[in-house]
């Protein structure tokens, strides 16, 4: 299994009861065909799962960025992963938004003080891979059986220098800011929920370097839990003539990187853990006619038809990543809260994406249990 964990996934908040009402939702009404209730994937110890943990999982919003706070959040967050980690092959991918943002701020202060140019984003990405990998290893290793290994692999990810993302920065990094604070920035920023954050280009990952991918495969085959593509990996471009690699100023989305790793490793499942309980329709602008609807199970093709509900820089990359993984790899994917990981894979929480029930179905949560949309 490959897991993508966002830093927000480690954000501890009161349990949210998932409630949805059957709404006058024209797309679902028009598009949903026959639909079956599906259970979650059975993790019997024979699966390889990629887990994606977002950068904000290490830190609560507006929380002081200290090592102590991040350790506490990781320790509390990975507890729900214990049985998954112990019984399955796991590749762990993490975000780095708050951490790389802090390094950027430190670099800017250093540049102002000394006149020396601050380090580029690719170098800062590499720094966060080591730092966050170290913190994750310290908290996860005690959960494993004696003798089972863990390794953090520094990961260079090829990107296309002509990727249109370089002309449209959408990836959030750094701490959350008030509107007044954001307007003082000299770099692009966008609204992120109730706050604002800096944004940078987020090109699509083409592939991990062959030698590093081979190392991940060998470690996984040997029973190790591997942490790789941290922060989406270190974005590099390759000279077509010389083959020389060079880092580039960007941050690859960790969910897209987790999807790429899952496909390249031929993983069975992709689990994206964040700080929201499930994928929702009308989440940002609910109304009496179109209330928020929390999705329990959905096919990849149906989710693609609903993609307008999921903005770039937020839920959008997560949804696109699970769609790509299921459609191209034939496995299952899920999105939900980190502290409900075990319930998500049991089909009791979060949103499960798979095509075993057909290509045109969706199920919602509501007050009385799951109902079939038809």
Give the arrangement of secondary structure elements.
Blueprint: E1 2-6, H1 26-31, E2 48-54, H2 67-78, H3 82-87, E3 89-94, H4 97-114, H5 121-140, E4 150-152, E5 156-158, E6 171-177, H6 179-182, E7 189-192, E8 195-200, E9 207-208, H7 210-221, E10 225-227, E11 234-238, E12 245-247, H8 254-264, E13 269-274, E14 280-281, E15 293-298, H9 300-305, H10 315-329, E16 332-337, H11 341-345, E17 351-353, E18 362-366, E19 369-372
Parallel strand pairs: 1-2, 1-3, 1-13, 2-13, 3-10, 4-10, 5-11, 13-16, 15-17
Antiparallel strand pairs: 5-9, 6-8, 7-8, 11-12, 14-15, 15-18, 16-17, 18-19
What is the CATH architecture term?
Answer: 3-Layer(aba) Sandwich
What is the name of the CATH superfamily? Acetylglutamate kinase-like
Radius of gyration: 20 Å
Query: Approximately what portion of the residues adopt beta-strand conformation?
Result: 15-25%
| Helicity level | 25-40%
Poorly predicted tracts of residues: 7-38, 368-374
Overall strand count: 19
Number of domains: 1
Category by helix and strand content:
alpha/beta
Distance between the first and last residues' Cα:
32 Å
Q: What is the global morphology?
A: globular
Average pLDDT taken over every residue = 84
- Overall CATH class: Alpha Beta
Name the helix and strand elements from N-terminus to C-terminus, one letter apiece.
EHEHHEHHEEEHEEEHEEEHEEEHHEHEEE
């Amino acid at each position: 299994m490959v897991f993508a964990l966002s830093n927000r996934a480690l954000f501890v908040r009161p349990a949210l009861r998932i409630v949805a009402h059957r709404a006058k939702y024209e797309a679902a009404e028009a598009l949903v065909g026959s639909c079956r209730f599906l259970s979650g994937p059975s993790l019997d110890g024979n699966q390889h799962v990629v887990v994606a943990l977002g950068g904000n999982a290490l830190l609560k919003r507006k929380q002081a960025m200290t090592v102590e706070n991040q350790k506490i959040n990781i320790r509390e967050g990975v507890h729900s992963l214990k049985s998954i980690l112990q019984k399955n092959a796991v590749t762990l991918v993490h975000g780095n938004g708050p951490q790389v943002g802090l390094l950027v701020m430190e670099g800017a202060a250093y540049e102002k003080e000394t006149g020396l140019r601050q380090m580029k984003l690719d170098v800062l990405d590499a720094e966060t891979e080591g730092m966050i990998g170290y913190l994750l290893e310290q908290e996860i290793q005690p959960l494993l059986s004696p003798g089972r290994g863990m390794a953090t692999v520094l990961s260079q990810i090829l990107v296309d220098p002509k990727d249109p993302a370089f002309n449209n920065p959408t990836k959030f990094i750094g701490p959350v800011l008030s509107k007044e604070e954001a307007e003082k920035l000299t770099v692009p920023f966008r609204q992120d929920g109730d706050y604002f954050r800096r944004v940078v280009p987020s090109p699509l990952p083409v592939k991990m370097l062959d030698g590093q991918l081979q190392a991940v495969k060998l470690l996984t085959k040997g029973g190790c839990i591997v942490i790789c593509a941290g922060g989406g990996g270190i974005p590099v471009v390759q000279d077509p003539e010389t083959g020389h690699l060079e880092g580039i100023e960007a941050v690859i989305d960790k969910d897209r990187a987790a999807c790429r790793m899952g496909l390249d490793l031929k993983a069975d499942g992709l689990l994206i853990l964040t700080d929201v309980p499930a994928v929702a329709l009308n989440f940002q602008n609910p109304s009496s006619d179109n209330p928020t609807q929390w999705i329990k199970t959905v096919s990849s093709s149906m989710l693609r038809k609903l993609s307008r509900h999921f903005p770039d820089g937020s839920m959008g990359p997560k949804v696109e990543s699970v769609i790509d993984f299921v459609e191209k790899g034939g496995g299952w994917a899920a999105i939900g809260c980190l502290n409900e990981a075990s319930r998500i894979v049991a089909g009791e929480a979060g949103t499960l994406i798979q095509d075993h029930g057909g290509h045109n179905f969706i199920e919602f949560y509501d007050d009385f249990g799951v109902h079939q949309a038809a």
